[in-house]
Specification:
Length: 463
């Protein structure tokens, strides 16, 4: 939790961006795993954390745009709670920590919302993603849970995106802390990646490191020898010499800020020549993104520039042919990189995606490109100082996609299918770092950079 002034300033800025009415920010409740008293680890709603800072279940915050009145709704614990949980601060005491002077029992929220509806005041709320909050909004506002998302306030969404996109100094400190935990996770994976070790064991160690340094992993760990599957959560294999292990993992620190890194390393500690060739192409893409990313440039432009670096490298290996600009414009490169270069990061590992990706990663100036591969670019808009984004190019040989495109004679002017066929057993490589947009360009986040060059990776794996 930050000091009260930070939250007060954030709420004041939000109020200034919303025309009139009431702003309702719902926190999350606990979610049962298999019976009511056995819950998943609690995770507070990120926008509630950003504006109200309280990391316990069962809260809601309201801001009156016209009057400036701020209220936190929540219930004080009773004796049964104290027996099991110990003494807890009152809602009023917790509200004071984030600069809110007024608190009320949660049941009073219904009364306030119904008064607002009766007097035809606007009630601005964000798109709900949990079903209990969908049902709560039905109770509060009389909008059926099944359609309540359609009534979310676009004005509020755009205001929240504008504020949360630019990270303050206090947030950068927290993200760097999460990056430091990410460093420990990935260097542990490098040391543990030995023939005969089970993927599940390494994935479990990484999850434990994340929990020991902060709150938990920032997303479900991706760790697999089958790196050609972009989000491979299966950890059932035994590591085998000659294959590569792709690890995409990050930490969420104690204040819920996130990191997200990917490394691809050789089982046994040595890259073979074919692996080195593809790896160095991806590394060149990764480094070019750092070079290109700066205020005033759209990340869509950076993505397309990186795709040309990928295509040029593959052309030099005999896997692509023809004019590189034309190949990327046609989308031929997407056989090898069917995803975008990166996404926003902060309190969410894919920051604010619950608010609608088209509002987070795009704007009126920069629109998504409806083309296979490039359409998966989550972040495309013009970069600003204070943005935190991921830089994660990759190169994958996906047998099913290769077979499909080959059968359909897709992009035969640019793809050398006979040569590509020989790589169907290759897997995939992805390299990812978290970067901050600075006044001059961009920089890596974290106290130490995770080994990334072939020499660095092989050295740590063979210590």
């Amino acid at each position: 939790m930050f000091n009260a002034e930070i939250y007060q300033n954030r709420r004041a800025a939000l109020r200034n961006k919303v025309g009139d009415g009431l702003i309702l920010i719902l926190g999350n409740k606990e979610a049962p795993a298999n019976y009511p008293d056995n819950t998943y680890k609690f995770r507070q709603d990120s926008s509630f954390l950003y504006f109200f800072g309280l990391n316990q279940p069962g809260f809601a915050g309201v801001i009156d745009v016209e009057s400036g009145q701020e209220i936190i709704f929540g219930n004080d614990v009773d004796m049964d709670d104290i027996i099991w949980m110990g003494p807890q601060p009152t809602v009023r005491e917790q509200a004071a920590l984030v600069g809110v002077k007024e608190s009320r029992p949660f049941s009073k929220l219904t009364e306030l919302m119904q008064q607002a509806v009766a007097s035809k005041r606007k009630v601005h709320f964000l798109p709900p993603y949990r079903y209990d909050n969908m049902m709560l909004l039905e109770e509060l506002l009389g909008i059926r849970a099944s359609i309540v998302k359609q009534y979310a306030s676009l004005e509020l969404v755009k205001a929240v995106v504008a504020l949360r996109s630019v990270k303050g100094p206090e947030e950068i400190i927290e993200i760097e802390d999460a990056c430091n935990a990410g460093y420990e996770m990935h260097t542990a994976a490098m040391r543990l990646c030995k023939p005969g070790v089970k993927e599940q064991y390494i994935a479990g160690v990484l999850d434990g490191i994340a929990a020991s340094y902060g709150s938990m992993t920032s997303f479900a760990t991706i760790l697999s020898q089958n790196g050609e599957t972009l989000h491979n959560h299966d950890h059932s294999q035994i590591l085998t010499t000659g294959r590569m292990m792709l690890t995409d993992a990050g930490a969420e620190n104690i204040n819920n800020y996130c990191s997200d890194f990917t490394r691809t390393i050789p089982v046994g500690g040595k890259f073979d020549n074919r692996q080195k060739d593809i790896y160095n192409i991806v590394l060149s893409c990764h480094d070019k993104a750092i070079e290109f990313a700066r205020p005033g440039t759209t990340y869509q432009q950076v993505h397309l520039s990186v795709c040309k670096v990928l295509a040029q490298g593959l052309k030099e290996l005999g896997l692509m042919k023809g004019n590189i600009d034309d190949a990327v414009a046609a989308g031929a490169h997407a056989m090898f990189m069917p995803h975008g270069l990166g996404h926003m990061m902060g309190l969410d590992v894919h920051d604010m995606e619950d608010l609608g990706q088209v509002y987070v990663g795009y704007d009126e100036e920069t629109r998504p490109i409806n083309q296979f591969g490039t359409s998966s670019l989550r972040m495309g808009r013009r970069l600003q100082e204070g943005f935190v984004i991921t830089d994660e190019p990759g190169c994958y040989f996906i047998p099913a996609l290769i077979d499909k495109w080959h059968a359909e004679k897709m992009h035969t002017d640019f793809l050398c299918y006979d040569a590509i066929e020989k790589y169907k057993d290759f897997g995939g490589i992805r390299l990812e770092d978290d970067i901050l947009i600075t006044p001059e360009g961009s920089r890596f986040l974290g106290k130490k950079r995770i080994p990334i060059t072939i020499e660095e990776v092989e050295n740590i794996m063979n210590e």
